[in-house]
Amino acid sequence: MVEPVTPAADLVTAEAVVVEQHRAVVPATTWLVDAAKAAARAGRALQVRTPADSRLTFPLELLLRDGLGDWVAGDRDGFRGFPLAWNGLRFVRDGDTLDSPAPVPGSGDLELRIVTADPPRAGASVETAMRALTGGPPLGWGVAEPVTQPWSTDDLADHFRLRAPRPVTVIVAGDRVIGRLRLSQVDGVVVEDVELSGPAAGTVARAGIEALAAESARTAQLLVVGAHPGRRSGLRSPGMAVALPYGVLFGPELVAKHGVAHAHRAPASRVKLLGSGPHTAVWCRFDGDPAPPYEQFAALLHHFGED
């Protein structure tokens, strides 16, 4: 064992920062956010260990995913379901037996991602998505859970401005929706990347998704909409589960690169061009086709040279 790199750590080795969380629901608290940053600075993996039946909030799920961290749920990998064992330095895979029920397609929370270059204001994509999914604006934001700041794009802009040009990440919340907003600068261009979970996929009207695609088409580079069978009410249960894609929108930049005719031939069950001229985007849905959505998604990425 080596000296702790963060007060939140229960164990620190040369390879891992291990944090024990004996809770039914584990959020991305300030301590865990700080632990993730400290682990990254030290070149170690963050491993969050919970009881076998605990659930993680979506922001913590993203924190572990992006930091190449692990969820140790009892004696198994919480995200992939295979058994784990302690090797003296960290928890590692110990066999191939999966312990996960078969997911039900289309069940669980709605999940979406929107990537926008040069947004009109900080948090604009969050507002667009929240209005489409819940009928109301975002409710709050913060650097950890629970979020403590009421929603304000001016306050968000100040928060980002003070930390630029470094990438900045905050947690955002709305009615039955939780997620993350990340702002970064790529070649001098501000990029807004939003990931949200909720509401339950079966409660969101198709008209709301279509409205989201239509509004996002003006500014977004990418919109991906799906349903995650392993997550309900923003909480991830242990076991192997991945989001099942419902639709993808490619923005005007990619459509212009390949041409409108190429976009119209996209290999998806439903293809719709949105906008006109140089502002044309393409919205591709995967429902209504016997081919599995993931096969259509892979073919679509290949069609646009994004695989």
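[next item in queue]
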Amino acid sequence: MKKMRLFILCVLICAPLLGCAQQSDTTLKRELMINNPTILMKTTEGEIKIELFADQAPLTTSNFLDYVKNGHYNGTIFHRVIDGFMVQGGGFTPMMKEKPTKAPIKNEADNNVQNKRGTIAMARTSDVHSASAQFYINVADNDFLNFKNTTPMGYGYCVFGQVISGMDVVDKIKKVPTTAKGGHQDVPSKPIEILSVEVVK
């Protein structure tokens, strides 16, 4: 009987401690999300608000914010639009002139964040670590773009944020007619311009 009482007492003591540990962990995760920066992208089709995953892709987020703060994206276009796949921008003017960039950054695609609909990721060439300024927003779940291994074919593309409002604007962009222009395919027939990008949180 005494053993049973002792067991019950231990359970009553430990249960609140366990609850505190779980609450602390949940609070930490919530704080990480709250502390993530948010940017507002104004386009000719409407506004898109994006949370950046500074906690999960710190290098990529910092690089992107540098371009935002120096005005790189203002006046660029979504130059590659494929319905059912993604919309890509941040690298060309409406005249399809490529903008100069800083040095490329390390690919953080191994951060376990998936290329799901509504996420933003860095575009790159076949060189794994070649991303600089261009980005894309997934308009579908593109699991084949996720990190699988460290080989050139398996490295994937780094997701560093998600659309938190304005996905209807992204869906509008994905539906526009496209053509070939300036040596590129899938270019919107009428330029979809990024008017400005600013940090709002």
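[queue empty]
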